[in-house]
Records
---
Amino acid sequence: MSDIAMCQKKFIVHLVVLLLSMRSRVNYLMLYCYGKYSEKSYHTPGVGYFWSGCAGSVKWGLELSALAIGDIENQTALHYHARQTEWQKGTESLQIWYAKQLCSGALELQQMTKILTADAFFSKKPFVDMVCAAGRFTFVSRLQHNSYLRYAYTGEQKPDRGRCKAYGGKIDLSNLDTAILPSLKRMTMKLFM
């Protein structure tokens, strides 16, 4: 027992005394109620409120951000990288934290793939700009349901004072205007046929 540290010796002695002093059946799950050591006395790093996709709401707990490399031909994905989210509220946005994490390993990741795919949570301009600039990746993602897309204005500008008109109208994704985007008709035929 010479290789056991002093704090471990104290804990074992406390545990043995506690087990001998308890009456009736011993329930090891409830042992923390009777002793001086409990989970509540220690701080868990990285604990906070995170979005739970299964529950569809924000939950208290730990989050693990994972990255996988996908193989389209074999229809499989292999785990590549995982890291516990240790984001602190008030420092920077969570998306910027994720982008910095991806940018730190961009050189190794770029040797394997040039295309990144992500959830709709990541389809925001700051995240996409940081990740694409770091590794010259092509980013593929689903847009969020509240995305506001507009056509670029290609008409004649008014000679009045003020800023030039940059945007035409809102894009209706269920009814795309092929007159404004002629290449879109060929692209939709290619995608959906």
---
Amino acid sequence: MRNRTRIFSLAIAVCMLLTVFSFAPAVFAQEDAPSGEQTEQTQISAPTEPAAEAEPAAKMLSENEEEEVPSQEETEVYTIRTVLEEGSGTITVDKQEAKQGEIVSYTVTPSTGYKLLSVTVGEDSIAVENSYTALSGTFTAEADTIISARFAKLSTFKITTSVNSSSRGTITASQNVTENGSVTITAKAKSGYYLSDLQVDGKSVGAKSTYTLNNVTKDHTVKAIFSEQIKIMLDAGHYGKYNRSPVYSSYYESNMTWSLHNYLKEELLEYSGFAIGVTRKDQKKDMNVYNRGTASKGYDLFLSLHSNAVSSKSTDYPLIITQKGNTGDKLAKNLGKVIEDTMNTKQGYKVWQKLNSDNKTEYYGVLRGSKAVGTKGMIVEHSFHTNLAAAKWLSSNSNLKKMAEAEAEVIADYYGMTKDGSGAIIDSDNSSSSNTSSSNSSSKIVSSSQKVKVLVGSLNMRKSYSTSSKSMGKAKKNKVYQLKAKTKDGKWGQLKTNGYWIYLKNGYTKVVSSSSSSSVKTVKSSQKVKVVRSNLKFRKSPSTKGKVLGKAKKNKTYRLKAKTSNGKWGQLKTNGYWIYLNWTKPVTSTKIVKTSKRVRIKVTSLRMRKSCSTSSRTMGKVKKNKVYRLKAKTSNGKWGQLKRNGYWIYLKNGYTKTV
């Protein structure tokens, strides 16, 4: 029994062993097979599975294999490099590598003491607009790119300065300046002289005591021209409290002339070309008239300031009294005209001379004295203090300041003077890259196509626009010259034929034709203005060059429809012509109030007018001693509107009396 059990156990063990070995070839074959045949061998070693069901498994594995294959369309990455070819500077980029199509930014900066010459990005040359500052830009990455730059050391330039006479003034010493740097030149006149011109590289830049060159890129020469000052002696006509007005008791001629001569002195000293003296240091002390004239010895001009007197209360003309033979003097006429215009006198100015019975010597002591020492002299009568309106006008300090300013301008214009500028002229060799400030220099050049006729003999043609400039010959009297440029203040004109300059003011020339391409900005306006001077011209355009189309009537009120943005010119609503507004005054609308009062007429020839203004049309006259009923009046009570016909009468000055 025991043996039978052993045999049975052995048989079972043999069967199990055979079963194991029946699987071994497939297993060992699977371990030895290449990886690419692994799936196929696995399918073969599974005889219990139908062949048709093995395909889906194969497909799934194939898809997994495709996901592990790298993409052939991956984005290219390019290298960005910088190369400094020459000089000293920096090149910076915002990235060292960039994908295709990506934007790359760069900045190229010269080191101190260097300038940028050129920049290349890949195969492209980049324009360098300003060599002295950093250059920035961008490009699109499309390949490996090199950004290269060249720099160079800044040069040094010589600024050579000089004066026409070292005894007349000084100028900043010559010096070197680094390229693109700046230098300020200062010119200073000595006592008795003034700076009449400053020339840079042989060209006038105006009489400026300070001149700055910015962004220097070449050598320069700067020359200061100094001239003798024009010396003017001012005489306050009377001392103490003298010549009281018979029509305005608070007015004294002596007080007015003392104030005016002080104001005029201040205004004239605004021009560095003038040296001013005064005959009196104390208003309270008298001084012999002849000695006041001789006090002008060594001076170029003597002006004795006065107001006039006459028995007539309506006389108001300004009067200039000259030395013998000088009644045609241009300065005398200009002074008379400016007083007339500034005071708005009803009568035009006059120029006289008055001699003693010998018809040789001056009647007036101050003119006799000034002539004795060789000084050109004038007595300047500022209207009549026997005229109420004139006496009141001359009693105002603000009016006297206005008069002083106007007279100073006339005198300066006569002598070709301009005021010193408040700031330096700024110039630049490289205007496209400099930050320059503008100057209101009166000698700034503007283009012009004017034609001018020379009215005097011996008018100098000069190398530059300055009386101290070299004379290149004479312009012919009565000949017409074409200009190609002029100074901004209109005082000098450059001839088209030879480039020389002639002085245009003081009646030396007359414009015969002009053209201008500059447009004037205008704005709408409904303002009313009253003309305060005679001979105010209607012009076709808002310019003194505009064609004259007639004259406006003095004291007439005009309605505007437009004016220039600077307020200097106004366009009339009626005809579209232009007038110069400096010779007008605004007319404010008068407020009307109702009234039923009655007035009696106290004078003869009191006019009825269409509106409440002395410039309004006369509609007839009211009768003396007759009583009229009003229906309205102006709020200031000066004008009343008649109920019967709507016309206006003037109520003040004792013309009417309320009943």
---
Amino acid sequence: MGREAMDTPDYIQEFLERNPKALEVYQSLPPSHQSEYVRWIEEAKREETRARRMEKMMAMLLDREG
């Protein structure tokens, strides 16, 4: 079965709020997809890796928006 939805941490939410289009796309995703992004970012051990992953997430969200 699927995993439970995770709450979006404040630091990721604040990052997404910098780009309203990316935030809109993120919020339109099913909770399970949002959780996958959160898990991917949170599993990074280093702050630099988390920052890189957040940038990549934003690019992927904007690419989805078309």
---
Amino acid sequence: MSLKNLDKQYAQRRQTYRAVLDNPFTNEGSLWPHVKDQQQVWELIQTILLARCRALADAEVPAPEWPLGITTSFNEIVTLLQHENDDNDQSNRSPLLLLVCNKDHGVSSVVLQQIPLLAYMSPRKVTLVQLPRGALATIQTQLKSDCTEGLLLAWGDELQSLVNQITAKIDQPQLPWLDQVKFEPTALKLLKTTAPLKKPVEKAGKK
């Protein structure tokens, strides 16, 4: 290929930037806690937590009046995981139970890859549970919610017994190299790359 043709080829591209969310240098995003006897754990969650939520929803009890807190919003979940303890807030005085549908089709692995680290580095006590395949549809039905990110965070004093039973069946990941590290929110980076120039669209009928 001649230099003239090479220059012409590069002239057809423009510089652009793309967001980089993945981190190729760490594997903490895949370190989900191992759940022993997952079917029993899932049945406990359905019987104690999801059935309770469905009963409150069917009774049309306003969410702020529920005796336990529930959210499926990714942004709210991240905020709760990052906040320091506040004795005046019920969500900070009770255990956090974070359920993740990371095996279900349609749930973004890019969105979920930061969850194990967020839970591990949280100043709060978080019980992280990966659910079996098909759990997302059940959660959506019981909560009457889309739950598009595949996440459900629950808290409340009445969940203490459930959390204790689940914790006994979970092998928590060990990340000793992070024990003395203070959590800082991940900064979004931009990757310098190129994209083809768009050719002007010819008007119909123009010769």
